[in-house]
């Protein structure tokens, strides 16, 4: 039904199975980032979700998407993970969440933190406060008490990076509550400049969460406030701690929401080489990654340098998972956040059926080499799409030469339009969206 591995390529099976329905591909007009919706008789799949508060749940409701079999995040960047978190928070009907292993590794690293708080403040370029005796975590346990300990450590690290202050406490919950107080005060001061008004309202909100909210609610609110405070940082001198705070905030929000979702959460690791691994029970393969079922190889004692490197991971470029969908009649290749550097002459991708391809690096010139390793039996039946892309960036010459191109940001009028493609048995029909005339 799916792929046949050949020495020099990856191919679809020749058998076309009729599952009793049309296959649709949508590129959703989220505010920023990527969000692709694939609907077929096998179910609906969401690949990436755009930024946080980009109205993704509302878009799905408007398009009568009742239930999603899997919501997939190809990379933990704000432009992909944010909308997935929105789905979790709204309680959208999702059977499975596929997340990058980073979302699980970050809490584990926090549990193994060696307690070098002066080193962390130094890395974030803050003076070391006197009250940095924050209780650390001593195990890798992520259930029960261990979950709260790792959450408290992550939140405290984020607050320290964001404000230069230490949310001290003798117990994990106390550290989380003190972190919320610091963040509420900081947001209030930034919003109104002086105490009172909005500042008082924010502090009441924070106190209310501490009084009646569950611990997951308090951790989630800390993550939100931390992310918005990090976004407000400006200036080159803040760049390092801004990225650290944003990354930690994403990890905190993911951690808080993952424990409360009704669907299963699965984790995948990008390996940097051609893996072509099946995802059981789904018509998908992970082209350059594997599902993670055991956690090994983490340092026994985590240093501030280890944490900073991991926290800044979401802001690397071209490192995303590559996914491939196929039902025997048509396919889709999701590679918008990668340069496909793991492909070469001996390991290429063969498209045997009409396929929608999200252009590597959104059609940018940094992925020029990738196109010659994506082979096709009938290239004129494929459709290449690209989402948000800066008009100031150079478009790949190889992308310009492709026969069928569609842009979310219409090249002619420079307006955002949803892209809708439908497979009717022999080809992908273009039903909505703007044609790409780049070059």
What topology emerges from the helices and strands here?
Blueprint lengths: L2 E4 L2 E4 L10 E5 L8 E5 L2 E5 L8 H7 L5 E5 L5 H13 L3 E7 L1 H10 L5 H7 L21 H19 L8 H21 L5 H15 L2 H17 L7 H20 L5 E7 L6 E2 L5 E3 L2 E3 L12 H8 L11 E4 L4 E4 L14 E3 L3 E4 L15 E3 L6 E4 L10 H4 L4 E3 L11 E5 L4 E5 L1 E2 L4
Parallel strand pairs: 5-6, 6-7, 7-8, 13-15, 14-16, 15-17, 17-18
Antiparallel strand pairs: 1-2, 3-4, 3-19, 4-5, 8-11, 9-10, 10-12, 12-13, 18-21, 19-20
Summarize the structure in short.
With 439 residues, the chain is α/β, with parallel strands linked by helices. The chain has a domain at 116-258. Helices cover 32% and strands 20% of the residues.
- Helices, by number, come to 11
State the distance separating the first and last CA atoms.
38 Å
Mean pLDDT: 84
Strand order across the largest sheet: 11-8-7-6-5-4-3-19-20
- Estimate the helix proportion, in percent: 25-40%
Quantity of strands, as a count: 21
Secondary-structure-derived class: alpha/beta
* Shape assignment: elongated
| Contiguous runs where pLDDT drops below 50 for at least 5 residues | 1-14, 136-145
Largest sheet: 9 strands, mixed
- The radius of gyration over CA amounts to 23 Å
Q: Beta-sheet strand percentage?
A: 15-25%
């Amino acid at each position: 039904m799916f792929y046949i591995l050949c020495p020099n390529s990856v191919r679809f099976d020749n058998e076309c199975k009729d599952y009793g329905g049309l296959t649709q591909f949508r590129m959703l007009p989220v505010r920023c980032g990527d969000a692709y919706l694939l609907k077929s008789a096998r179910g609906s799949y969401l690949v990436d979700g755009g930024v946080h508060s980009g109205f993704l749940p509302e878009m799905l409701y408007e398009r009568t998407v009742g239930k999603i079999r899997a919501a997939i995040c190809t990379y933990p960047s704000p432009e992909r993970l944010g909308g997935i978190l929105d789905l979790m928070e709204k309680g959208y009907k999702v059977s499975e969440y596929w997340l990058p292993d980073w979302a699980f590794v970050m809490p584990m690293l926090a549990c193994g933190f060696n307690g070098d708080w002066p080193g962390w403040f130094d890395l974030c370029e803050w003076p070391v406060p006197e009250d940095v005796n924050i209780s650390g975590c001593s195990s890798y346990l992520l259930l029960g008490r261990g979950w709260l300990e790792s959450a408290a450590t992550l939140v405290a690290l984020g607050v320290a990076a964001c404000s230069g202050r230490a949310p001290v406490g003798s117990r994990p919950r106390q550290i989380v509550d003190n972190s919320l107080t610091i963040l509420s005060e900081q947001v209030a001061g930034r919003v109104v400049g002086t105490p009172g008004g909005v500042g008082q309202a924010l502090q009441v909100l924070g106190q209310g969460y501490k009084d009646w909210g569950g611990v997951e609610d308090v951790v989630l609110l800390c993550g939100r406030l931390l992310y918005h405070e990090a976004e407000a940082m400006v200036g080159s001198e803040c760049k390092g701690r801004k990225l650290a705070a944003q990354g930690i905030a994403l990890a905190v929000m993911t951690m808080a929401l993952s424990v409360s979702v009704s669907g299963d959460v699965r984790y995948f690791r990008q390996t940097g080489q051609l893996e072509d691994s099946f995802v059981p029970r789904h018509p998908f393969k992970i082209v350059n990654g594997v599902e993670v079922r055991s956690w090994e190889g983490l340092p026994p004692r985590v240093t501030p340098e280890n944490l900073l490197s991991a926290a800044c991971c979401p802001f690397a470029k071209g490192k995303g998972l590559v996914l491939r969908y196929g039902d025997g009649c048509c396919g889709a290749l999701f590679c918008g956040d990668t340069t496909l550097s793991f492909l070469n002459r001996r390991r290429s991708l063969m498209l045997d059926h009409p396929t929608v391809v999200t252009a590597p690096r959104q059609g940018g010139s940094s992925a020029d080499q990738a196109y010659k390793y994506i082979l096709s039996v009938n290239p004129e039946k494929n459709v290449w799409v690209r989402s948000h892309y800066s008009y100031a960036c150079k478009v790949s010459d190889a992308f310009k030469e492709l026969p069928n191109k569609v842009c979310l940001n219409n090249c002619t009028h420079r307006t955002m339009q949803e892209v809708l493609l439908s497979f009717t048995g022999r080809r992908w029909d273009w039903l909505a969206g703007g044609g790409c005339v780049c070059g």
